[in-house]
Amino acid sequence: MNDNFVAIKEDVEHILALLDYQASVLVSQNKAAILIEIELQNPGLLIGQGGEGLFSLQHIARLVLDKKLAPEGTTIVLDVNHYHQRREELTQKSIKKCIERVKITGMEEVLPPMNSFERRLAHEFIATFSGITSTSVGEGKERRVIIKLAK
Prior knowledge:
Layout: H1 3-18, E1 24-29, E2 33-39, H2 44-47, H3 52-65, E3 75-80, H4 83-105, E4 109-110, H5 116-126, E5 132-137, E6 144-149
Parallel strand pairs: 2-3
Antiparallel strand pairs: 1-2, 4-6, 5-6
Helix pairs in contact: 4-5
């Protein structure tokens, strides 16, 4: 593990200790982001309703870790007990059903409100289907993705 990853792991463990959590932290990297995977018992409070606690923790981690990342602007994805992975799988399943309805009816489908991370994943997933396009509408917590036929 490189020195940056060791420092990131230690900082995340410190943040979690301040929140009175003991956890296993694994840091890795793919082409798009630095991945911080946290495993702990009773993750419910840390994840929060709809992942709000997890996204707040990710924001705090970004602020703390920003100076340790190279190159600047590297994306950080923080996950607790594979919450993001499960959420992404459920979202993709729902999107597939919406895409099928759009192809059959020709009418656009509006997805429930999503945070920016989920919307980005939704747009990337939707882009893999030919003849279908997506756009985001709304503001703040009410921002959502619309799926429609490509023109």
